[in-house]
Amino acid sequence: MVVKDTSLFVINKYTGPHTCVNPCLNRDHHQLDSNLVATHIKSLIKAQFTLTPAAIQASVMEKWGYQISYKKALDGKHKALRQLFGDFSQSYTELPRLFLGMEQSNPECVVIWKTCEINMSNTEIFQRVFWSFKPSIEGFEHCRPIMSIDGTHLYGKYRGKLLIAMGCDGNNQLFPLAFAITEGENTDSCGWFLACIRNRVTKRMGICVISDRHPGIMAAMSDPHLGWAAPSGYHRICMRHFASNFMTRFKDKVLKNLVCRAALATTVRKFNKHMNTIGRINSEALQWLEAMLVHIWALSHDGGRRYGLMTTNISEVFNSVLKGARSLPVTALVQLTFFRLNGYFVARRELGGNRLASDEQFTPYVDALLKGRVVKAGSMEIVLYDHVKGLFHVKSRRGRTHRVNLHEKNCTCGKTLIYGVPCSHMIAACQHRCVDFRLFVDGHYSNRSYYDTWASLFHPILNEDEWPLYDGPTIVPPASMQRMGSGRPRSTRLHNEMDDREGITSITCGLCKQLGHNRRSCKNRNQL
To answer: pLDDT-derived band of residue 489, with 50, 70 and 90 as boundaries?
Structure first.
């Protein structure tokens, strides 16, 4: 058709094949809104809290054949989370009744609140809450006297810290003991958390608490009024965090590896050897290490308190289990701890029961240790010095000699004291005297102790309409903890060299193919 008063024409209709379609045309659909996306992904979110917007986009493409935007996928996820787990602000108000519902079917759960009064009648501002379940409290009495403390950030609408206390069972598996949601990880909140554990969860003496060098935990452990100062408790430092602090200060991987070797040394001789090497390389680094209390970071000076556990990995493993839940409302987070713990208890109670039924004496972890050490003991030379005290001179295949005293249950290699399991030298001495070396295994490693650790039962939570009524003050979240602005919350993790992964190359720009930047920050972006 010719345009009026011009020599131009317009094509109104073309019946041939189209070869000029713009590949960047919008492939979304206006009726495919975030509400429909939320309805579609509900079941996916329930199964995996960490479902990413990219995965949601792929799921929508697979079902309907449309490519939705990243923002629409994220909005759909947020709506699905609200539909499944409720509103973030309202969850603080509903939290007291949730705990009542849990206590209704699981009596003797420990819940401790700390709130702040405000001018509004019958309303208080949330500050902290601590909880521990009865099966955990009972089971911890059969665990080794070790506790790992760690904290992790919450990433929902409100900021905060989730503090976790973990024990360790006889099979070297994590044992969730207590939790708390606090305003942050500081001296006051750490002291309050440890005081709650000491006053309401366990009175056991001589518990070894392993943590990082957070000033709050350090101060709480040394406070005589909180019940954790020696001999009631013993504080030890996570080797990974200690080595990371060292690396941040001196930035030398060779020295860092030597520090780890010194920390892991089982004898004072080996420890001194590595320390001397550090001193020859860097005298300032040696002075830094010597300024630290050696028994809190070196295994050879530990006295067997930490049972060979050098890190807070057992707490960090559970943190990773809760990773997706940390962006959920607090009611969902608390419920997840309940269901996760029940899953642990069910699976491990069955394992313990099966091993008791088959007359197994020790846990699989210790059986594997003993099996390897028995094989090693078969190639050793043994010389008896005193049959009354059980004093032996044992020579290994490598030519290193050790003194074994069966009466005092020790060996100069240090491993029996450190791990609570007889070393290969002690096993060799026992076999020479026809003594059962299993008598020297710490009682916490027995299958009976393992079963008793996980024997207590969780009971199903009733329907919400059957929960007791809550007649206390209305709990509201503090406005100071609310995240400002929209979008993905900025990470509050303090990154250090532990976050660096070896073997990962630098980022590469997709435009100029150079290292060290991406498309958005490319200086040649306008020229390409």
So the answer is: low
Q: 170 with 445: CB under 8 angstroms? A: yes
User: Rounded to an integer, what distance in angstroms lies between the CA atom of residue 246 and that of residue 282?
Assistant: 12
Rounded distance between C-alpha atoms, residue 333 and residue 179, angstroms: 11
- Burial-class residue 512 by CB neighbours within 10 Å (0-12, 13-18, 19+): middle
pLDDT digits (tens, 9 = 90+) for 71-118: 899 899 888 888 888 888 999 999 999 999 999 999 999 999 999 988
Q: Which residue has the tokens 């004072």?
A: 268
The answer to pTM > 0.85 is no
Band (pLDDT 50/70/90 cuts) for residue 502 is: very low
What is residue 59's predicted lDDT score, i.e. its pLDDT?
A: 93
Question: CA neighbours within 13 Å on the CB side: how many for 299?
Answer: 24
Residues 319-349 pLDDT 10s = 777 777 788 899 989 998 999 999 999 999 9
For residue 156, CA distances in Å to 97, 229, 301, 387 come to 21, 36, 42, 66
487: which DSSP letter?
Answer: S
DSSP for 27-93 reads ---TTS-HHHHHHHHHHHHHH-TT--HHHHHHHHHHHHS----HHHHHHHHHHHHHHHH--HHHHHH
Mean pLDDT of the chain: 89
β-strand 123-132 against 110-117: which pairing, if any? antiparallel
Q: Compute the half-sphere exposure of residue 151: CA atoms within 13 Å on the CB side of its CA.
A: 27
CB 146 within 8 A of CB 204: no
The torsion of the CA quartet 298, 231, 412, 256, rounded to 10 degrees, works out to 0
- The secondary element (H helix, E strand) that includes residue 168 is strand 161-168
Q: What dihedral do alpha carbons 459, 462, 468, 472 form, nearest 10°? A: 80
pLDDT digits (tens, 9 = 90+) for 246-259: 999 999 999 999 99
Q: At what angle do helices 239-250 and 283-290 cross, to 10 degrees?
A: 140
Q: Cα(127)–Cα(28) distance, rounded to whole angstroms?
A: 44
What's the rounded Cα separation, in Å, for the pair 350 and 358? 12
